[in-house]
């Protein structure tokens, strides 16, 4: 006798609720259809469901996302870095208190005492025909951030090897929920033989029909839930083994909306607006935001960033502010609207010659006009770099580019052999946007503050009445 086991999954929604009613309808329909046949089905999320870029996620600190998952009927979920490092320790500790699904993540641990009651390293479940399944969850080890929030993420591969040794004596099938990224998933498949399926995320890769390495099926469904994923395992009860593994993804963006979910999102949006209506400051005049020019607001915000981090200098791109602020009351909703990014302040150490190169690169059109997606940035373009604590003299030449003529700190030219502390957005510590910042050996991140917390402070201090 053969039995089919169905897993439907989502990953990396990032609180992008535009497709959520379609996703909800699709998942509900699939689960109902399979359970009506007395077959086994599990709904699974691979993390980064929460992203505080959306007012609903911001106002409810992620708990509305959990409610939405409860309404759909999820069975299992793991954590992504957006759940893990974008909220204070206590907020994450309580995030899944009302979850009707099991949360599994083997390598996340609290440094302040007991782990949350909802956190499990692995889960045992069983099919209708008695097939024993072990599910392990893993999340990416961004400990430079996690440990500032009193969490620690242990090494994913070592953690998994330990859990698999235990599980393979207890279950028939091992499924990994991996918020590690495609490269890590592929490495796990090469090195650990007993993992049957890896359902992945984090790097927003879309594997339409999966990928097989060493008999391990790897799959993932992109980002923002334009696609939902499906894994079908066929278990042969006579042979006592899996005889077929299938992985698919389906574009759900064109499907009918689940109207119950539409209504719930509408109600949550209205309540979020109410929760975010608390006044931050009152402005006597409107404040301009211009992505390619200096403005008083950006200059003040960059100064606050330097003071907040106690750095020698600061640099911040004007594209972090998305819209101007009109005269009158400024609320938390306004702050979130114009600065929605989950970006933290940070400080790095640079030698003078490195800082000079950062200033030079930061003023090039290649960077200022870059339409960035990722690294926490949720805006349109990087925009002009604004400096505090540095006197930067430039000239615009015939090619339209701005060139640096001199950079001074406290009236003196930068000393190429001197170390300067430089505050900026943590965006620039990743990738190759500003290589000298990214490769700095000393980085200090400030958590749980976001740039919008500094923006609120700036408005109260310099512009509020």
From TrEMBL:
It holds the Pfam family Metallophos. InterPro entries: 5'-Nucleotdase_C, 5'-Nucleotdase_C_sf, 5_nucleotidase/apyrase, Calcineurin-like_PHP, Metallo-depent_PP-like, Pesterase_YunD. Residues 280-427 form the 5'-Nucleotidase C-terminal domain. Residues 8-205 form the Calcineurin-like phosphoesterase domain. SUPFAM superfamilies: 5'-nucleotidase (syn. UDP-sugar hydrolase), C-terminal domain, Metallo-dependent phosphatases. Keywords: Hydrolase, Nucleotide-binding, Signal. It comes from the Bacteria. Belongs to the 5'-nucleotidase family. PANTHER family: 5'-NUCLEOTIDASE, 5'-NUCLEOTIDASE-RELATED. This is Bifunctional metallophosphatase/5'-nucleotidase.
